[in-house]
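Hi support team,

I submitted a single chain yesterday and got back a structure, but I'm not sure I'm reading the token output correctly. Could someone confirm the output below corresponds to the sequence I sent? I've pasted both exactly as they appear in my results page.

Thanks,
R.
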Amino acid sequence: MNPNNSSLIVEIVDNCKVTTLSNGVKVVSEFIPYLKSFSLGFWFNIGARDENPGNNGISHFVEHMLFKGTKTRTAKQISDTIESYGGYLNAFTSKEHTCYYGRGLSENFKKTFIVLSDMIQNPLFKDSHIKKETGVVIDELKDIDDNPEELIFDKFEEAIFNGHSLSYPIIGTEKNLLSFNAGSLHQFHKANYRSDNLMIAVSGAIEHDEAVRLAEKYFTFKKNSSTSKRKNVFKHSVCDVMIEKEIQQVHSIIGRKTFGFNDSRRHKLKVLSTLLGDGSSSRLFQAVREKLGMTYQINTFLNSYQDVSSFGVYFSTNDKQAGKVSEIVYREFKKLRNEEVKLKELNRVKEYIKGNTLMSLENTTNRMIRLANSINHYGKVVPVDYILNKIDSVSLHDIQKLSTEVLDESTLSRIVICSKNNSLKKAA
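Hi R., thanks for writing in. Yes, this is the structure output for that exact sequence:
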């Protein structure tokens, strides 16, 4: 580590260390000495939530374009450099973050770091590359449009976050994709790919000092604190939306907006959501699939952001049974509002969540993502035991109280994708 740099380790939790460099880059790492590999993620605090109607989709498009080459590496050289050593590169864009990540053997950490840092800082944005990738992303958009079990989640958040940028789809619109050019991409990149907007997260057999040293050496862009504050979601929209598609099944979501990462009740909601529809022992799976055989897919979901989450029940079934499945979902909501859950069932759900949490941490990429999310959402590394204790502390009273608030039918929206002649549509 450069002694003249004002880097400072500010936190050590669960064998994790956090350092903030003088240019604002944060480095968080977890050293796991018994492994032979690592996962490395470069996280930018930028996503669809930070866009507007005219540039919606640009965060995701820039993510694609950063793999198309730099001033010193072609796209093929980028992939060859990593894959020739058995490594792996990928990226994803969410509504609040963009992450570029790699996996590999520890001896190849420096190579992966250098390639990713070059991609992130020196994109070409060549017109010919933009034209080709526009076609690729439009094809991806059409794939989503053709896939109702993926499309319905975009339409659900579009409805419940109506009037807020969280309603925008990550992939954007075809009109916007066709409008992006080298100028708009360079401008977006310069404004958002800043040192003070970057976090580097590492999990595996990599010493913290090594990650810090590489960050100091290979990140040359400067700090720029001209960040715009995100607007919170205050409005609660309730609506029924039906979308016609040439499909055979009915796809439906019943749900609402609820607590985000900044609300302590989110852990209680996780327990309620799991009890209701996560896993084959859950109430909805047992009531709808196991007892009646009415659906192949039925589950709850909880998509969380800093200040809000989207929560609901998703299912798909045939036209004749869709109405009955909805009735059962509402019936299970009512039971949770009016009848106290048995302690044995609550304890089973807690053990299920804790077991899944701990098993997920046997994967270094999951561990790297957990580190980054912890810093992004809480500003610090939150110990795993803290999360497990929060789950353990959820009481029977908590579940019933939360059910009364969250599962109130008058606060729930319903999104349905179905065929033109669907009976649900006729009834509506």
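A quick pointer for reading it: Residues 259 and 265 are 7 Å apart (CA to CA). Let us know if anything else looks off.

Best,
Support desk
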